[in-house]
Amino acid sequence: MKRLNEDARELYFEAIFQTIKDQQKAQFREKYLELHPTDQVELFQTLFTEKRPYVYDYLSAEEFADIFQGLDVDTQKLVVSELDKDYAAEMFNHMQADDAADFFSEINEPHAKEILKTMDKVEADEVIELLSYPTETAGAIMTKEFISIKATDTASSVMDHLRQMGPDAETIYYLYVINEKDKLVGVISLRDLIVAPLEEQIVNIMSTQVVSIEAHTDQEEVAKLIKDYDFLAAPVVTSTNELIGIVTVDDVMDVMEEETDEDFGEFTATKGATDVNISSFTAAKKRSPWIILLMFFGLITAGVIGQFEETLEEIVLLAVFIPLIMDSAGNTGTQSLAVMVRSLATGTFEKKGLMHTVKREFGTGLMLGLICAIVLLIIVPFIYGSFLLAFIVGISLFLTLSIATIIGSVVPVIINKLNLDPAIASGPFITTVNDILGLFIYFTIATSLLHYL
């Protein structure tokens, strides 16, 4: 199994395409199965509809299962519609239960039930169990392919057991020790097992300090735990400590990618619309609520400007700096928002506390505001010939940036306390709020000093 560089891969792919064109089954199997799994998936995705049936014919259902697991869900749905019913069932029998459950959760229930009925009962029951857990929990993302052992087993017998069961397990780097009631009582690493005397009992080797995850734990907490402890896998247990599965680091990587996409969608007010494969209508439908809400906030911004219409009429030059005030306030607030959301996501907020984080951001805002004010006090008089105008804009920006950082850091904390995703305090929302605040400060100061201008 080899991973090729770009040029070699293209040449190798061409050779495989030729075996399909010439219907050379043996040559296709030899060349295709020698590829790295990632390259196998990539090559399959490049095949036209009329060529894919050759792959189904040339590969066994077990061999194709590894390829199917690497496809995106839309391609998986297309492939299943092309497969023979028995071939598809056999393929799902050889897939990891969690990967199969991920697919079934994306298709309609009648179709899922139809496929599950044709699968082996043991394999189907494992998938059904995973589907029974709420989405985005440890139970929903765990795998059932793990190895458990007894405390009374010897190192030698466990090694024999590994040779037999290891190929079908998701990972064998950690072995979980259970008692006669299937309750988790210990864990042993593969390294400790290998170096132990052959006749040593597991009870004398295992660690009883086991970090486990309850099945209904949120997947984001699961990812954080595995990251914090630097685990390759973690056991999943019921409320009575019965071992029912494991969550592996590759599952966590998928979770982190999913959570990042979700936070990005919340942060940019595009939740559910970041997938380029969805239609324009669907994207517009998902993005329109925020756009409409922000439009009404825009009316408030216009109202603030309208309240100071007389000030603007007397000193029209003040209008020149409106974009500067709005942009600076919005950008600074969004930066603080990003810092706080990240702090909440990684757990550093809990370690440092609210006051430390807000104080840090407020101090940052003060320094940013001071730097910007000094720059304006130097530049504006040269361009517009007014030191007082430079003072008004400078002090307005100083106050605005200082307060904007507080708003950007406090709002996501409040939302988090309400048990909501802090990322919903999106960038556009914070930007608009700080725009309104910045304009109010700017025109209030300008109006109070109007008779000096």
Provide a descriptive summary of the structure in words.
This protein is mainly alpha-helical and 453 residues long. It folds into three domains: 131 residues, MgtE N-terminal fold (Alpha Horseshoe); 101 residues, CBS-domain; 173 residues, SLC41 divalent cation transporters, integral membrane domain (Tetracycline Repressor, domain 2), CATH 1.10.357.20. Helix content is 66%, strand content 6%. It has 22 helices and six strands. It has a three-stranded mixed β-sheet. A three-stranded mixed β-sheet has the order 4-5-6. Helix 5 packs across helix 7, helix 8 crosses helix 10 and helix 21 runs antiparallel to helix 22. The chain is elongated. The N and C termini lie far apart (78 Å).
Give the SSE layout:
Blueprint: H1 6-21, H2 25-32, H3 37-45, H4 52-58, H5 61-69, H6 73-82, H7 85-93, H8 97-104, H9 109-118, H10 121-132, H11 138-141, E1 148-150, H12 155-165, E2 174-178, E3 184-189, H13 190-195, E4 213-214, H14 219-229, E5 233-237, E6 243-248, H15 249-267, H16 280-307, H17 309-314, H18 322-346, H19 348-352, H20 354-384, H21 387-417, H22 427-448
Parallel strand pairs: 1-2, 4-5
Antiparallel strand pairs: 2-3, 5-6
